[in-house]
Amino acid sequence: MRLITHNMLKCHVKNCNDPDKQFPLRFKDAQLEQIEAERNDEFLVRMLPRIEWSALATTATELGIELPKEVPKVPADDDAFMQALHTAIMEMHVKGGSMVCNGCGHEYKITKGIPNMLLAEHEI
What we know:
alpha+beta, N-terminal domain of TfIIb, 5 helices, 4 strands, Trm112, Trm112-like, Trm112p-domain-containing protein
């Protein structure tokens, strides 16, 4: 699972009612792997408005990935920023571990890079 995917996931357990704690999910025992990918600046610039930057920056820091705390005014003109963004959201893959909700503590397992976001019937 890439960090770009993680940035779009939140807890959906029915008793988890605090929207401020449902996102972002916190990684636990994350197993990371960097897989090189071709950089596409046009895609990165188009994705920036869809990314919750503070959540991505915090998650990256927790995982030991270097990412600027803020987005530059003209991201496409900052090559170092674009490379850091590309590495963080396109090349870093979480292969195992889990994601934990800060609100209710529900744990979503990650196996072979795929997060299990399915809930039991009593959690829906």
